[in-house]
Design brief:
Elements lengths: L1 H17 L2 H7 L19 H19 L1 E5 H21 L4 H10 L4 H14 L7 E5 L15 E6 L18 H40 L1
Antiparallel strand pairs: 1-3, 2-3
Helix pairs in contact: 3-4, 4-5
């Protein structure tokens, strides 16, 4: 059995090496975020399994609340898994058993599996950007130094129903002082135009007067 597994692994590895980049992209949908070259080291007494459970907890909170706040490095790591989960759900749908297994593992609240396929997949199916956004949160200065070792971050799903974190631009064109300034600019431009026309007319009259004097 072990020899068979080794032979299968070697065959699969050589098959991947011989695949072109376009063929490889068909196997795994490309993500639209920057991926760290190495995974984040997360202390956990339960080893790699405990690390994945911690990440699954953050992914669950993100899918449920659509905006979470935590340490920036941890959220950055969880973001990779959330992006991959949504990408696989869009690509394969809820009839694909491996994708369902992935959703059942990373979504610890099972009602969120329904939200993933029925709410988020339609929302992001035609998206051309990443499914999530990250922000750096302000540093807390009124706590003990041990509490601010890690920079804080905010991770959210795009197009969520929550109030936006980024201030929306306020149209100021119709503000009274801007209206007055615009009208003053128009009056100034009209006055300058009239001065140019008057100067041109005076120049033409002077030229005609000079020509008449030469004839006389």
């Amino acid at each position: 059995g072990r020899n068979y597994i080794c032979i299968y692994f070697n065959y699969s590895y050589r098959l991947l090496l011989n695949m072109s980049q376009a063929e490889f992209r068909k196997l795994i949908p490309a993500l639209r975020i920057a991926i760290r070259p190495r995974s984040l080291r997360m202390r956990n007494i339960d080893g790699p399994g405990g690390r994945l459970k911690r990440i699954a907890g953050h992914v669950t909170n993100l899918i449920r609340d659509e905006r979470v706040e935590h340490n920036f490095p941890t959220l950055s790591e969880a973001r990779n898994y959330a992006e991959r989960l949504i990408a696989e759900a869009i690509r394969h749908g809820d009839k694909h058993q491996p994708t369902m297994d992935l959703a059942n593992f990373y979504l610890q609240e099972k009602q969120l599996v329904h939200k993933l396929f029925k709410v988020l997949v339609p929302r992001y199916r035609n998206s051309t950007v990443s499914y999530t956004k990250m922000y750096k949160a302000p540093t807390i200065t009124n706590r003990k130094p041990a509490a601010i070792d890690h920079p804080k971050g905010i991770l959210e799903l795009r197009n969520n129903p929550l109030p936006p974190l980024e201030p929306r631009p306020i149209p100021t064109r119709n503000w009274i002082h801007n209206v007055l300034l615009e009208e003053a600019r128009k009056d100034f431009a009209a006055e300058k135009k009239m001065e140019k026309e008057l100067a041109l007319q005076n120049q033409i009259e002077d030229q005609q007067r000079d020509q008449n004097d030469e004839i006389d």
